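Dear support,

We are seeing what looks like truncated structure output for some complexes. This example has two components. We would appreciate it if you could run it in full and send us the complete token output so we can diff it against ours.
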Amino acid sequence: MAMSSVLVPLAGGALIGLAASMLLLIHGRVAGVSGILGELLTAPGERTWRLAFILGLVAAGVVGAAVAPAAIGASPASKAGVVIAGLLVGFGTRTGGGCTSGHGVCGISRLSPRSLVATVVFIAAAMITVAVVRALGGWS
Amino acid sequence: MTGQAARAVWAAVAGAMFGAGLLLAGMTRPEKVIGFLDVGGAWDPALMFVMVGAIGVHLVAYRLIRRRSSPLLDGRFHVPTRRDLDGRLLAGAAIFGVGWGLAGFCPGPALVAAVSAESALIFVAAMAIGMVIQRVTAGGERS
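Here is the complete output from our reference environment:
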């Protein structure tokens, strides 16, 4: 395995951790993307910073697509598959109170048992899903 | 700058930094994410290092930051304190995992990719609908 295939993901992760730390230090908030978007869509109040954070994510994507288009890819799933996946992710993250960022990064960093268990469960469920899709002949 | 404006600007900076990290980490390439989840196939462990990097930094920073009595631009920290496990947590995490494995997108990377990848935009729209459905069906109950 090339050194860069370890160092680049490590650096990307460190940047994610730094951004989460910034939101905690300045706003006192957890950088959980599903929570921020879900509350923005369904809860009254505290809309401005949430919208700003989401727009920051989108802006990073706009710049990323311009300077490093290969960094952004399409889902291998069919259009119907993507719709079903999106519905499940939206419903599931709001039911379970977090996603990869809120539980996987922020919660585990707090040593929260809820987040640790949730992360193990969603990674296991995702691995099983990939194995099942593969067994059924893949995405296309 | 008023408090509200400063909070918005810094949240946008944090969001952009978070997005840059996701791009650098490879999280905005669903094929790469699925490669990490494909433990029975050609497993690509790279995304494990993303978790290590992110948790490594935030674990230390979290402890330092929580020594303060309050954040810089808010009166208090808004951090979950529940420690018990319940069925909603487990069921929600499992449902999320199925969707994540199916498309290769989780919420953050999908928002980053939404402007340039059509599948990410469709995913984000469906995800938003799923979030609203959850709120309507769960009623006033908060997760």
